[in-house]
Design brief:
Layout: H1 2-26, E1 35-40, E2 46-51, H2 54-59, E3 73-81, E4 84-85, E5 94-99, E6 105-111, E7 119-120, E8 125-132, H3 135-138, E9 147-152
């Protein structure tokens, strides 16, 4: 009787290890689950994915062919820090918007696909908003603009996509 019970536990353990390995193997392909709605005085309801873990922030929008069900990506940091990013393995040209501790746009940079050039916030920031190139101008986002966001746990319905995103 004890042997059967022990065998079941071993099988259960192997099953859990196998599932864990599957999750690890496929985790680069799992999309970032959280979303945020970003607001400013010049636009509202910009729906973006949220990168909070270091792994999510390191990956950013690398290997993404097309923005699907999102307007971009918001990278969030618990403490203000100088952020350096690059576009290596990033296929979509981006506007990179650095947001400081006062929730104001500190800097807007352009990111060119596959570039290894470092793009730096120069000063500590708490967030980086990555949206398709040209959208910052079309949405009239300027240095000094105040921004805010709300993180939502459930899938946002009635997503508003901006016209500047039509070709991405």
């Amino acid at each position: 009787m004890k042997q059967k019970s022990h065998w079941k536990e071993l099988k259960k353990g192997k099953f859990l290890k196998f599932n864990f390995l599957l999750i690890l193997f496929f985790s680069p392909f799992i999309s970032i689950s959280k979303e945020a709605i970003v607001f400013s005085k010049t636009f509202s309801e910009l729906i973006v994915k949220v990168a909070k873990t270091e792994k999510e922030k390191e990956k950013g929008l690398m290997f993404v062919n097309k923005l699907d069900q999102t307007n971009g990506l918001l990278l969030l940091y618990e403490k203000p820090k100088v952020v350096n990013i690059w576009m290596h393995n990033t296929k979509i040209p981006l506007d990179i918007i650095f947001i400081n501790e006062q929730n104001k746009v500190a800097l807007i940079k352009k990111g060119e696909p596959f570039s290894k050039k470092i793009i730096s916030s120069k000063n500590p920031v708490i967030g980086v908003l990555e949206i398709p190139k040209g959208c910052a101008e079309k949405l009239n986002i300027k240095v000094g603009d105040e921004t805010s966001w709300v993180i939502v746990k459930d899938k946002v319905k009635n997503i508003r996509y901006y016209h500047c995103l039509d070709h991405f």
